[in-house]
Structures are given as structure tokens and as C-alpha cells.
Specification:
alpha/beta; Rossmann fold; seven-stranded mixed beta sheet; globular; transferase; EC 2.1.2.2; Formyl_transf_N_sf; purine biosynthesis; Phosphoribosylglycinamide formyltransferase
């Protein structure tokens, strides 16, 4: 018997390399997942082009058009409901998920962070690790909760920091690690029935 297909929304804010890594992996592995929607908070970013190339519908929301985050998230939640979304993958989405979305998708949102949490949370994880002079950093996939990169850790992968690294060298290794780890974690969650 064929498993039920799970409807996924990916949230992103920029380039979309994790979006592409995820969609490519899902196709290659023939996973029972359908990326039904890309939610983006910027109108002119490359991830929208990537979604168009993959025939993934997009929903662009400008938070400035709403009186507060709750109002914007109410609109997002309705769009997710309209698309029967089962699970949300944050892939370079540079906003904190608020209580409105968390209440509707508790335990159904994951994020990837470019550092070994709990070290170097927040928006500049790679740069913060680089400037701290650590010899190892990495990538973390975690459940999303009401804090900033504070949800329960699902998986981590270490990435070495070499003495002669420029920041761009480390960024490249981190992103390459993300592109392998994130899709595989999604597959594992699916196999465990957590999606």
C-alpha cells in the first residue's frame, strides 16, 4: 500500500540553496512528500525563481502590510490551511515564528541553524563561530519553539574550522553540510512518523 503523501511548506527569505537541496532530494528519493508551497517574506529574492523552476506555488507576504506579526501570521496560517499543509520546513527564513503559527503547527516545524546549538544562536551563527576562533562548529536541525534557536535538537553535524580559513571558506563548508544533513533529517522524520 502506498503511504499517504505529506504536504510540506518551505519558508525561506533569500537565496534558496536549502530549498533546492530539499526539493532535489525529495524527487531523487521518491519520498511521499509534496512541497505544496513556498512562503517568502521578500518579493525579490532568488528562492522565488527556484520555486518557479520547480513549479512550486509561492506566497509572498510583506509583514509591513499588517498591523502586527499576529495579523500577518493569521494570513499565513490561512494560506497553509488552504493548501492542507502538514509540516513546515524553515530553510533560511529570517523571522522568528510567533505564537499564532506555533499554536497551529506545534511539533510540526523544523529549522536548520548554521552552528552547533546551543552555541552561536541567532542570525549570524557562522560569523559568530568564526570570530570566536573555535576549531569546530557545525550545523543543527531542531524543532521550532517560541525561543530563538532554542527548540529540541534533532540532529547535528560537526564542521571543522581550519586555521587558514576565510569566513567565506567556512560558509561554503557549512552550506554544503546543510544541503546533505537537512534533507536526510527530513527523510528520517518521515520514516519515524514524525511528519
Amino acid at each position: 500500500m502506498k503511504p499517504d503523501v505529506k504536504n510540506i511548506a518551505i519558508f525561506a527569505s533569500g537565496e534558496g540553496t536549502n530549498f533546492t537541496a530539499l526539493t532535489d532530494f525529495f524527487k531523487k528519493e521518491s519520498l511521499p512528500l509534496k512541497v505544496k508551497l513556498l512562503v517568502c517574506d521578500h518579493a525579490h529574492v532568488h528562492v522565488l525563481d527556484r520555486a518557479h523552476q520547480e513549479s512550486v506555488p509561492t506566497f509572498v507576504i510583506n509583514f509591513k502590510d499588517y498591523p502586527d506579526k499576529a495579523a500577518a501570521e493569521t494570513v499565513i496560517a490561512q494560506k497553509l490551511a488552504d493548501n492542507q499543509i502538514d509540516f513546515i520546513i524553515l530553510a533560511g527564513y529570517m523571522r522568528i515564528i510567533g505564537p499564532t503559527l506555533l499554536a497551529k503547527y506545534e511539533g510540526k516545524i523544523i529549522n536548520i541553524h548554521p552552528a552547533l546549538l546551543p552555541k552561536f544562536p541567532g542570525r549570524h551563527g557562522i560569523e559568530d563561530a568564526y570570530e570566536a576562533g573555535v576549531d569546530t562548529t557545525g550545523v543543527t536541525v531542531h524543532w521550532v519553539d517560541s525561543g530563538i534557536d532554542s527548540g529540541k535538537i534533532i540532529a547535528q553535524q560537526e564542521v571543522p574550522v581550519h586555521k587558514d580559513d576565510q569566513l567565506s571558506d567556512l560558509e561554503q563548508r557549512i552550506h554544503a553540510t546543510e544541503h546533505v544533513l537537512y534533507p536526510n533529517v527530513v527523510k528520517q522524520l518521515l520514516e519515524r512518523g514524525e511528519i
